[in-house]
Amino acid sequence: MFFRLKKGDLIDILAPGSFIDEDENFQKGIEILKNWGLEINENNSLSKKFGYFAGDDLTRFEELEKAQNSKLIIFAKGGWGSSRLLEKNPSWQHGLMLGFSDTCSLLLSKYSQGFIGSIHGPMVTGLFKEPEWSLERLRNLLFEGYVADIRGIPLRGGKAKGEIIVSNLTIATFLIGTDHFPDCKGKIIIFEDINEDIYKIDRMLTYLRMTKTLTEIAGIGFGSFSNDSSDLEWKDLLKNCIIERLQEFDFPILFDLPIGHRSGNACIPLGYEATLNGDDGILSIDSPF
User: Fold this and answer.
1) pTM for the predicted model, two decimal places
2) Residues carrying an active site annotation
3) How far apart are CA 283 and CA 273, in angstroms?
């Protein structure tokens, strides 16, 4: 089963966590979606505020429930608060749902409970910042069902095949032990994050080791972890932390994939079969048909 959009489809924009404080960027993102021929379902709750959230938990949860039969749910932005909705156990349905960062909690929950359609990729307020190749990649995935290969830096050789899971590292770590964290056995795992101190990343990788999350995975990749791609010293610290924390495993590792908070956030559909090549640095996603 795979879902593809067509021109004229009605889609839903939701803000499951923080309220929208970038209205100009938000409108630019909507224009991109409309230029693709999509219709936007009007949602009055997008303008709501409750503390630093886009409405209280019940309001945001009800909007998520109402949109379950949508052709596409695309999240407005990240921030914080999406995981609070998981306490109410969403009634997931098969269908496309696009986001990353804080909304990874929802993507992982849907995937872990056997429903297809979660996509890690750009959200509405960030669409206008994406380079042309990233926007074209997203459009191809949504309308045609395929994505091109992407390339990272090999840290350990070998080739892994398996279903792919992509998530923000912090969000994934705090879901371990809940019903919303997927079975990682035989999977290719990709992590991204933003501006976390090295000691915090070390702590999370250590926790992944202690919970045996990485014991039977097929391969692992790391996207961007900082907005500053020119900070080579910090990038070396991160690379060395990854190598040291994962040295006892034998799966292939890729580093610096174009996935995450920097402009150029390559969309990845969770649950697709993928190949991670630690020899040439290529991550490829199989077409489902």
Assistant:
1) 0.96
2) 101, 192, 261
3) 11
